[in-house]
Write the structure tokens for this entry.
Amino acid sequence: MQRAWHLRFCTAITLWLLTCAACAQTTLDLWPGAAPGSEHWTQQEIVAHDTPSGTVVINVVRPTLTVYLPRPDQASGAGVIIAPGGYCVALAIDREGHDVARWLQQRGIAAFVLKYRTQEKRQQGIPKNLDMDQACRYGIADAIQAIKRVRQHAKEWRIAPDRVGMVGFSAGGMVTSGALLQPDAAARPDFAALIYGAPFGTMPVIPAKLPPVFMAWAQDDPIARDAVARFYDALLKSGVRPEAHVFSAGGHGFGMSHQGTSSDHWIEEFYHWLQAEGFLRAPRPIPISATPGESSAGAGHRH
């Protein structure tokens, strides 16, 4: 009897260790060497804590992917690359990055925080007269590379290579839109979510037959509202039918913060949309309201 108990105990410990190993975070370099186009950048990366946007990373030269994998028995088959915002001169890496990744991971979705290259920050506050097309072009290149890297590891990470999408916040939404609208259709994400983000520079050409698009923003957003609405209208005129959630309040940069407004629930709406579009599958249904530490995953079937 004691021997049987010992075997059960050892088996349980082994399974626990395997589960912990599967869910541990790993950070990978995005490019095999120096990122192309910024080989001679000399600015030093800075991490600033306790800013109004939470933890912020500035002067990113070496882009990376931080990998959040769900438990194997909860894996939905979907992967989401997350692009934080910050005018392409900084990244709100927690509120619009790691916090989002953990939420998705707990619900069976593999998540990847993209720390993409940013323009050197040479002044306090928000840069004036910033050329967003120039500032975000390195981030867009990193986003396209991130999609390639995730698909290369799809089998290892238990992801379907045709269920790799992106979600971007503010300027990260511009980075996401750049990956979505690129000419090479095979290199686009399989779905894209733009959260109070859009092309903030010149309106790009919108190709035909884009992957599914999700958008969310607040009516009282003084920074992104007009640009996001223009992009939404441009998508409609091009024959794209994006899912759009316009919240009455929430301001700009709500991310994963809780303000007591309906915008607090954008991520649940995104999750339901992924289900409805067929990007999630799971061995068993799990309540979306599961709290951290509970078993959780999305349910759905890809047709």
Observations:
- Helices lie at 2-23, 94-105, 132-135, 137-152, 171-180, 225-237, 266-276.
- The chain is about 30% helix and 20% strand.
- The longest strand covers residues 46-51.
- Confidence is low (pLDDT under 50) at residues 4-22, 283-287, 289-303.
